[in-house]
Design brief:
It is a single chain. By secondary structure, the chain is an alpha/beta fold. It has ten helices and 16 strands. The strands form three sheets. It has a six-stranded parallel sheet with strand order 13-12-11-14-15-16, sandwiched between helices.
């Protein structure tokens, strides 16, 4: 979504008609994942990509036709191994793409959520019910729920329920819902999630955090530094950090949404600060929690936190010593090892 927004916004300012193409499912090998998007203007301009190959030529033609008819369509491309490279599928496979005219209301809600670093889900009926084909619902969960449309019909309620499910998973899903007009019939729907940027919370404004914050920003993370010691948690040390807090970490983190896309790196080496952070982070939904320190330090920390009431299961979530073992010596190398472990945990969450 983010990659096509500048072009879509520019085209809309000119009053252009726009179609959106979204990858809703892949089988075999594909260079673009589910949720990948391409925008097509009525003048044939394109932004984004759904395959990287000549599939996109066919998608553009179908998109222009969808604009003429004012109706979406589900496209299916099956590719044999010997022709796979020609259409952008590395080793053969199948890809399904939903093409539809841009819905201004749903796009505006999604764009507003993206600009505000919030997650948004738009659900579309892509098959199964002619009367409701193409019907959409969008949902933003941020404490004050925003939805289009409001929950009026049974189908709308079901679409918003699918959106809530996808947002809880933090990923796009293709699923089925019952069609109220014909209870035995299922609607094929695609819940398209644009997640908020991942967040890295660094507890301790130490030298490692300076390097870690810079690396995280390059990788698209929103960065937060927490340190009650003002000499460490200063704007001079962290001029580019997104948020700088000089509160105690347990107080600061209580007001933060710790989600599966949140990583917490505890770096001070001071139990008075580190333990407070871990007491909040480990029982939370944060996707990654790591703490600096040797194995001996980790053992003492574990005992303290057990005595403080954390469970064995919660403590088993702690990555310590923090970072991948790459023989890191300098603060920059340690930051690299931490960031590599955070990225690995996002893509391989069950391999700890």
């Amino acid at each position: 979504m983010r990659d096509i927004m500048p072009s879509v916004n520019a085209w809309r300012e000119k009053g252009a008609q726009i179609a959106l193409a979204t990858v809703v499912e892949t089988w075999g090998s594909s260079p673009r994942k589910v949720g990948a998007k391409m925008a097509i203007s009525a003048d044939g301009e394109i932004a984004g990509s759904v395959s990287g190959g000549c599939v996109e030529g066919a998608v553009v033609e179908e998109a222009l036709q969808a604009l003429k008819e004012g109706r979406g369509r589900l496209l299916h491309f099956g590719v044999a191994d010997e022709t796979a490279w020609e259409v952008g599928l590395a080793c053969g496979g199948t890809i399904e793409i939903f093409v539809e005219p841009l819905s201004p209301d749903h796009y505006d809600l999604a764009a507003e959520a993206v600009d505000g670093d919030r997650s948004v889900c738009t659900v579309t009926v892509i098959g199964g019910g002619e009367a409701v084909f193409g019907q959409k619902a969008s949902l933003v969960l941020d404490g004050s729920e925003s939805a289009i449309p409001p929950k009026e019909t049974v189908v709308e309620q079901a679409l918003l329920a699918a959106a809530r499910e996808a947002l809880a998973l933090d990923r796009s899903i293709r699923t089925s819902i019952a069609y109220a007009a014909e209870p035995d019939q299922q609607l094929d729907v695609f819940a398209d999630v644009t997640p908020a940027p991942p967040v890295l919370i660094m507890v301790g404004g130490v030298h490692i955090a300076v390097a870690l914050g810079k690396l995280a920003r390059v990788l698209g993370y929103r960065t937060v530094v927490i340190d009650p010691r003002k000499s460490f948690g200063s704007q001079a040390r962290f001029p580019e950090v997104d948020q700088l807090l000089t509160d105690w970490p347990d107080e600061a983190m209580q007001n933060m949404p710790l989600t599966p896309s949140t990583s917490v790196a505890v770096l001070t080496h001071d139990p008075k600060i580190d333990d407070r952070a871990l007491k909040v982070a480990l029982p939370s939904r944060a996707g990654y929690v790591g703490a600096l320190g040797s194995r001996k330090t980790q053992a003492k920390r574990r005992q303290r936190l057990l005595e403080a009431g954390l469970s064995e299961g919660e403590l088993d979530r702690l990555r310590g010593p923090i970072g991948l073992s790459i023989g890191a010596q300098t603060p920059e190398e340690i930051a690299l090892s931490i960031m590599a472990e955070i990225v690995a945990s996002r893509h391989q969450p069950h391999e700890h």
